[in-house]
Amino acid sequence: MGTAVAWPLSDNGHQVRLVGTHLDNEIIASCLEKGWHPRLRRQLPNNVRPYYVEQLAEALEGVNVIVSGVSSPGVRWIGRTLAPHVKPGMKIIAVTKGLEASAEGHLRILPDVLADELPPAVRGQVSLAAIGGPCIAGELAGRRQTCVYFTSRDAAALPVLRQLFKTPYYHISLSTDVVGVEVCVALKNAYTLAVGLAGGMLDRLGGPDAADAWNHNPAAALFGASAREMARLVSLLGGNPAMVTSLPGVGDQYVTCMGGRTVRLGRLLGKGMSYEEARAEMAGETLESALVVAQIARALPGLEARGLLGRDELPLMRCLCRVISGNAPVEVDFGRLFPDDVK
Amino acid sequence: MGTAVAWPLSDNGHQVRLVGTHLDNEIIASCLEKGWHPRLRRQLPNNVRPYYVEQLAEALEGVNVIVSGVSSPGVRWIGRTLAPHVKPGMKIIAVTKGLEASAEGHLRILPDVLADELPPAVRGQVSLAAIGGPCIAGELAGRRQTCVYFTSRDAAALPVLRQLFKTPYYHISLSTDVVGVEVCVALKNAYTLAVGLAGGMLDRLGGPDAADAWNHNPAAALFGASAREMARLVSLLGGNPAMVTSLPGVGDQYVTCMGGRTVRLGRLLGKGMSYEEARAEMAGETLESALVVAQIARALPGLEARGLLGRDELPLMRCLCRVISGNAPVEVDFGRLFPDDVK
After folding, report:
1. Helix, coil or strand: residue B212
2. Same structural domain, B35 and B153
């Protein structure tokens, strides 16, 4: 995803320096030798120069904007790694999706976690922003119509960033509701895992029956419950729940449900595998969805102790927490997902 | 769908009388001769007795609850047809999804339209209810886990109805927000048409490219915009927009996007066909999605004239209205679907 934004930037005539982490050496080598990005399966666009992580200082020389595309476990690392090079006035925009639970059970959004690692003197002089919304990297690189939100507490930075990135296929809306956007995009990974369970439950039933009944009804119930719980969590953490009925919430969850590793993990779990077994089956893949669930599982006791959340709230997330953090089998109580509003 | 609820009712030991309309004579003949429902491709469950429409009086003898499963253009017909047989204390629960615009531009929900056709003397002594939420008929008949809302202004009738229908696979939540549920389930047909456009736009591009980029990003943007506009319309018509972030809104839209005639119609339109051409291509199929859009197109001028809706609101619905009611080509302005919340 970090690489995919090179397409709109390049189309706008900007110089892009693409720096791999130490895990990306093969990708960078291919980019340098053949201009070919093996994961995206595309030639890099014009104006993109690849760098190994050891060349970071050189790559960051004179840049205006840093796009951070690490996965969520890499956020503190990227903060520490950038720290010596960050200069006042720079803008950092992140595509990483996740949440971090503190020991006391506070859930924090990742731009704030990244900021922790910057030197205090420069921290207030850098604009931190994030990108949220449904965007499959390969489709952005294929110049498909894509809508996203750019979000930052620094309202003045947002139009500047949009100007750099926007193209006739990359449509950018702006919001200062960083918590709303970031909580939505983190949760959609967790809740897509829930929707994915339905596919595994169908496997367990032996697949579609003779009359071709699949398992879309339970998947849709799980999708609806996801939206409901997402709105509750966004409100609880101080964001605007209207973000859920929009691009970063159900829009992003919709695209995530269309396939990929989160759906695959959900299917394995729904089929009856324990999380440990499923993780072994998917060894080597970063399972952002499970990481988010684990962070929420850590935060739940604190949220309850502070009286912010009732014990009967978020039944679907609690089911996911038992599966991911308790290695329990999947047991969705479909009868408890939606409340009555009459006695 | 009207037939599919026979499965939970039969499983609960109730006697079910299945009455076809004049369009269903072949289905009823098959049900009578072989106990086989050709559309659902299943043997009918126990306790279900099929009737032709001419036998309606006999079929309604002594019944407690009528389930109406007609399509939206049949709602006034079913009201008139039932009128002579309806007795005080009966309950009518409808699965029909749609809206009706009055000449003055008021949008009405279908249970109210059905009530219009009942004799005034009996109207107030009958409970009218509706079922909303993601439910593919063939999956309910296949006893897949299914969650729905039963809704009625008659709060006392709701637990009674639930008791009749609920099974370990058919989970029923209750709500008196009839407008919220009914507007959601009508709009999800209209907005699924919008999501379906993305598939046709991909066809127009020649399908997935060499790097296997599909068109999920635009589909997800359209899904997110749908939720946003659905919440606006539910509020405007007096329902609770929380229904959108739940089962009747995005839950039902999710399942509708998984396939079927609405997605097919959207794809034809997205590919470049006019609505007239697409309708000819799909001759013989009831296009509920287009019917809902046409009703909203009729209502928009009145809603604006009464100051309830701004001219720049609902950009996606307005696009659909131009296509369906104006026979215009599809032109989605992706850059206008989501607002900034900063200057």
Report:
1. coil
2. yes
- Is residue B12 located within the same domain as residue B136? yes
Q: Does some domain include residue B342? A: no
Check whether A257 has a pLDDT greater than 90: yes
Q: Is the pTM of this model over 0.80?
A: yes
Q: Would A341 be classed as within a structural domain? A: no
Chain A residue with Cα closest to B172: A335
Q: How far apart are CA B51 and CA B67, in angstroms?
A: 14
Asked whether residue A309 carries a pLDDT value surpassing 90, the answer given is yes
Given B146, B176, B206, the domain boundary residue is: B176
DSSP helix, strand, coil percent of chain B (3-state; round to 5): 50, 15, 35
CATH number at residue B323: 1.10.1040.10
What value, to the nearest 5°, has the Cα angle with vertex B69 and ends B65 and B71?
Answer: 150
Q: What are the backbone angles phi and psi of residue B175, rounded to the nearest 5°?
A: -150, 140
Which residues in chain A have Cβ-Cβ distances shorter than 8 Å to B171?
A: 221, 334-335, 337-338
Please, what's the b/e burial string for A126-148 (b: 16 or more CB within 10 A of its CB; e: otherwise)?
bbbbbbbbbbbbbbbbbbbbbbb
Q: Do A216 and B134 touch (CB under 8 A)?
A: yes
Whole-number Å distance between alpha carbons of A296 and A307: 16
Based on the fold, state whether residues A142 and A192 are members of the same structural domain. Answer: no
Is A343 among the domain residues?
no
End position of a domain, from candidates B142, B161, B176: B176
Whether residue B343 has pLDDT greater than 80: no
Residue in B171, B242, B341 nearest the CB of A175: B341
Number of domains in chain B: 2
Q: Which residues contact A60 (CB under 8 A, 6 or more apart)?
A: A17, A66, A82, A85
Mutate to test the interface with A, among B43, B146, B147, B150 (most CBs of A within 10 A): B147
* Contact assignment for A142 to B334 by CB distance below 8 Å: no
Amino acid symbol at A299: A
Restricting to B residues 201-260, those with a Cβ less than 8 Å away from any Cβ of A are 201, 209-221, 223-225, 227-228, 230-231, 241-242, 244-252, 254-255, 257-258
- Residues B184, B172 share a domain: no
Cβ–Cβ contact A327 with B under 8 A: no
| Min Cα–Cα distance to chain A from B230, Å | 9
Task: Kindly state the percentage of chain A with pLDDT values over 90.
Answer: 98
Same domain, yes or no, for B52 and B163?
A: yes
ipTM of this complex? 0.97
pLDDT in tens, B119-177: 999 999 999 999 999 999 999 999 999 999 999 999 999 999 999 999 999 999 999 99
Could you report the per-residue pLDDT of A18-41, keeping only the tens digit for each? Answer: 999 999 999 999 999 999 999 999
Q: Let me know whether A206 and A143 are in one domain.
A: no
Statement: residue A342 has pLDDT above 90: no
Domain contains A270: yes
A170 and A41 fall within a common domain: yes
Specify the pLDDT at position B176. Answer: 98
Out of B144, B252, B257, closest to residue A218 by CB: B144
Name the residue among B42, B223, B341 with its Cβ closest to that of A254.
B223
Banded pLDDT at B50 (limits 50, 70, 90): very high
The verdict on B149 and B192 lying in the same domain is no
B99 lies in which domain range?
6-176
